[in-house]
Amino acid sequence: MYPASFEYYRPKTLAEAAALLGQHREARLLAGGHSLLPVLKLRLASPPALIDIGGLAELKGIQARAGALTIGALTTHAQVVSSGEVAQHCPILAEAAAQIGDLQVRNRGTVGGSLAHADPGADYPTVMLALGATMTASNGRATRDIAADAFFTDLFTTSLQPNELLTAVSVRSYGKGTGGAYVKHKHPASGYAVVGVAALVTVNGGTCEQVSLVVGGATGTPVRATAAEQALRGQPVNDATVGAAVRKVAEAIRDPLGDVYASGDYRVHLATVLAGRALRTAAERARA
Amino acid sequence: MKVPVSVTVNGATHAVEVEPRLLLVHFLRETLGLTGTNVGCDTSQCGSCTVLIDGEAVKSCTVLAVQADGRQVTTIEGLAQNGKLHPLQEAFWEKHGLQCGFCTPGMIMTAVDLLARNPNPTEAEVRHGLEGNLCRCTGYQNIVAAVQHAAARMKG
Amino acid sequence: MATIFGTPVKRREDPRLLTGQARYTDDMVEPGMVHMAVVRSPYAHARIRRIDTSRAAKMPGVLAIYTGKDMQAAGMGNMPCAWVVPNSDAKTPPYPAIAVDTVRYVGNAVAVVVATDRYLARDAADAVQVDYDPLPVVVDAVKATEAGAPQLHAEAPKNLAFHWKVSGGDVEAAFKQADVVVKDTIVNQRLVPNAMEPRAALAKYDAATDEVTLWVTSQNPHIVRFLLGLTTGIPENRVRVVAPEVGGGFGSKIPHYPEDAMAVFASKMVGRPVKWTETRSENYKATIHGRDHVQEVELAATKDGTILALRAKVWANLGAYLSTASTGVPTILHGLMLSGVYTIKNIHEDVYGVFTNTTPVDAYRGAGRPEATFLVERMVDLLARELSMDPVEVRRKNLIPPFTDGYAVATGLVYDSGNYQAALDKALQLADYQGLRKQQAEARAAGRIMGIGVCTYAEICGLGPSSVAGAVGFGGGLWESAIVRFHPSGKVSVMVGVSPHGQGEETTFAQIVSSELGVPIEDVQVVHGDTAQTPMGWGTYGSRTTAVGGGALAQAARKVKEKARAVAAHLLEASVEDIDYADGKFFVKGSPSKAKTIQDVCLMANVAWNLPKGMEPGLEASAFFDPPNFVYPFGAHIAVVEIDPDTYEVKLAKYVAVDDCGKVINPMIVEGQIHGGIVQGVGQALWEGARYDDQGQLLTGSMMDYAVPKAEHFPRFELGATETPTTVNALGVKGIGETGTIASTPTVYNAVMDALAPFKVKKVDMPLTPERIWRAIRDAQGS
């Protein structure tokens, strides 16, 4: 409940923030604070310094252009939920954001904070992987793009360098012919995803042209259910083909996580059930 | 090392120096003596500490006081205007939406945001909207009734 | 004036609570106040080899650090167990407030730090270095009694705190006559009470007067004061205990806790007011847990469904030490209720109270009665299933017939009054039970998993006659007292010994006084919670506040009224027998126009210019009420659940509750109590459960892991009521604080088992998580 002492820095620019991060290797970045502060309050971590990037205007805002949507790292979940651009170009993101935490958490928690924290029970990583999102990182001098599948490396671990900040995430827009769905089994206490499944399906003349299916919560990082995707791709979308694809979801999940509420076995079962629901809903939306 | 902050709480601006680690809820309760905002957990679950920052409901146990620098904070003490209870306060009283009262300030502050976003919520929407607020006494039924009652009153 | 008794008066407590003006213990500030943090054991069982406070002592703001040895050296006493059941070979090993040489559960205090603010106190507490020699750990009550299990206390071989028995009739003979015997092993899992306000204590020792004031989150400040005398050695008349606004308790704020004694000790030592406030994670370790029974049960019946006998063996996990009321909960409050609402002539139960390396277990909402009701209601449903009878029909066959002046059950209790059929009929009608069964058949045909659960219950509350308290080993009385004081202006102050903390008695008690004495309700002030302002009382728990405290209050009000009648007679120059009373006015029989109001009488009594010869001035009375019996509210609950056929999540679709708590003073408040109780009981059935690993680490150690029910988990409940008054108190009221919790766990559990019947699933341990149901179905289908 009472964080240990730390030094506090509030940079005014991204460059300044990156410079501070370079100087203070053990420092942690503070955005909305909804991943970091709970950890500090329980003293599970006691970093010597916090760099408060909450005021950096360059990390805010949602922009749609040329078939892509770019979301600033400091965008809150609530802003994603209510964004017209997100609703139009990438509604699955809003569907996922609306299921994060609760109203108060969504008002403070940020897209960048959630992605950089890489909690296995978080919702965005699953969706970002399904969307093939690109993370943009900056060290103050240079920026680089990191594909979602290279970004989440382990539980609570990303490929960000110690001196890098996540500044934005970009996803491709999708429209007519493609549908997305994020389906989640919420932990009754924490609200985190015990399992969350994101599906994107492109249907053309009743046939599944393209499909992306990702399972989160079951393992340290979200995983793509490639065998299931392959089984559905090129097939007519119906109960039989979706059923056949879903039976291959379990193949993607190695060493599932387990806890008091849900064992690894049950998570695999959930992943299978929720994948079916996500695929069916996404396909329905693709046809709409 | 202390950091200067200027926070406007219920309309009054407070320029003080605070420890960076000071949580907003302790700034409100201990620095300013506004003890209406309660602390019920330490993992951001219970919502007892909910206040408004620039009109949005937040859990003040998961915000540093330094993060509220330059912001407008509204607590339960600031909700009644000129001695007149806010319609949500009235409705909680009318509908018996509280028992021990400990979760009540947070519950009401969340409901303020909820009704700002959705002035005419269904029962299911209210129940879902309060997922970040725990109450151990009321069984929620009368809280839900109170929020809907207030919504009807606020529409006039 | 129409009587206000029985009407939904808005609560007078609410304005201060709604505006943030209410003052809970942690809101209190005293000049010079400092903060206390507790260093707690990370081990479930270990010897303390060494405590090094040197680094912590030098940290900023630190005033003092104390260990168990320091408290012992200063002559502080051990934590007392205030309820030791007799004839049970009970052992009460020492329970020091701060562990001296051995820690016995994770969270056991090993030192306290006093510092100038709460952040600094925590910093220093983290810097206290303790070396431990870990010892073997046992967390399971059954395993703890087996040969070779780790031993917690030298005084308690096999970790047995007691072995208590209850017997009635001839169980052996009845089992021999039985056509059917159903058996089950029921795990009534451990729960974390989770009052929304964590515990807190603020102690202020005044060296000038050698007096101490303790503001504390308590349900019973008078008991805390009584016991503080034992733990701190400060005489009771120099201790003031105040329970200011208290944010829920549910039993968890009954005990006198180690931190109460530590705060008083620390304040005395540092000479400044000392405040301690628990964090939620700390609460999960350091505040009592509830339930935690393993029950082996057998029920004998004839083939027409008549229950002949019930036999049970119970292992009650008490945790590492005996908390204040711990031994009474799984015995008196549990075993004596095994007849439920049924005519079971033969009952036998053995209860083993067991020490384990876990947080102490004590009273939690319902305390013993939920464990009894679940046991009985589960066995009745198993019998119904065994005989392919409708669970309602089995219940009907065995219900105790309606009675108004006592019914003796096999365990020796005499229930006060009951009409169980009426409550069941009303619930069936409200729920449209036949219609639900039809819907269920349709749902099953459509591949849905739907279940209907029924429970009929009675519970023992309104604790209780003091003579019984003494006979069953309770270390105090169970009477209540009240003072009704008229001030010269006609305004009334009421001082009561009970200590409500959310139940609304400031309002219902004002309703009682207003109705008894004809004064406007707004003229009645109700004072509670401060031992310096209120008369002795035993506190708020066991749904006794209104039944016993309200009884005392009515008695005091009636004494005042009799005195007022005598004054009025004198003023009206009539004899007392000729004075009638109505709506706050006294008048000579037949001439109501010439009347004296209670305010007229009050003024005269207070100025005393013209009183009957020999009458003492003033208009005030105090009363002590020791009820002749407990009260036994009852009812019938029905739940409908729908289970997701793929994920196996349980959705509570409908809930009907019909409860009978005798006369109702404020129906709005009664309904609120039922709503809250239902949610807590459903929490146990579906989500809640404290789980330890085999090293005694709490796996559900915060609200992140332990699922306190949320608003979205529930439908709108449908309530009904019947009214069967009691003759135990002057008001005819029973209790309603715990019924919802007692009834709703078996109701929802039975509904889920009913839903799973087509899958041949007979048993799933609570909480009924989706995974457990998924596994049970797989196992049942596989076998």
Report what the structure shows.
The complex is a heterotrimer of chains A (288), B (156) and C (783). Chain A has helices at residues 14-23, 36-41, 77-82, 84-89, 91-97, 103-108, 111-117, 124-131, 148-151, 226-232, 239-246, 264-287; strands spanning 7-9, 28-30, 49-52, 62-65, 68-72, 134-138, 143-147, 152-154, 157-158, 165-172, 178-186, 193-204, 207-216, 223-224. By secondary structure, chain A is of the alpha+beta class. In chain A, the strands form 4 sheets. In chain A, strands 4-5-10-6-7 form a 5-stranded antiparallel beta sheet. In chain A, strand 11 and strand 12 form a beta hairpin. In chain A, helix 10 packs antiparallel against helix 11 and helix 11 runs antiparallel to helix 12 (264-287). The radius of gyration of chain A is 19 Å and the shape is globular. Chain B is an alpha+beta fold. Helix content of chain B is 33%, strand content 16%. Chain B has a 5-stranded mixed beta sheet with strand order 2-1-5-3-4, sandwiched between helices. In chain B, a hairpin with a 2-residue loop joins strand 3 and strand 4 (56-59). Chain B is globular and about 50 Å long. Chain B starts with a strand and ends with a helix. The mean pLDDT of chain B is 97. Chain C has 783 residues and is of the alpha+beta class. Chain C is built from 21 helices and 28 strands. In chain C, the strands form 7 sheets. In chain C, strands 3-5-1-12-9-10-11 form a 7-stranded mixed beta sheet, with helices on both faces. A 5-stranded mixed beta sheet of chain C has the order 7-15-14-13-8. A 4-stranded mixed beta sheet of chain C has the order 18-26-27-28, with helices on both faces. In chain C, helix 11 runs parallel beside helix 20. The longest helix of chain C is centred in the C-terminal third of the chain and has 27 residues, at 545-571. Chain C starts with 13 loop residues before the first helix and ends with a helix. The model of chain C has no long low-confidence stretch (mean pLDDT 97). The chains are: A alpha+beta (288), B alpha+beta (156), C alpha+beta (783). Chains B and C meet through helix 2, helix 3, helix 4 and helix 5 of B and helix 1 and helix 19 of C.
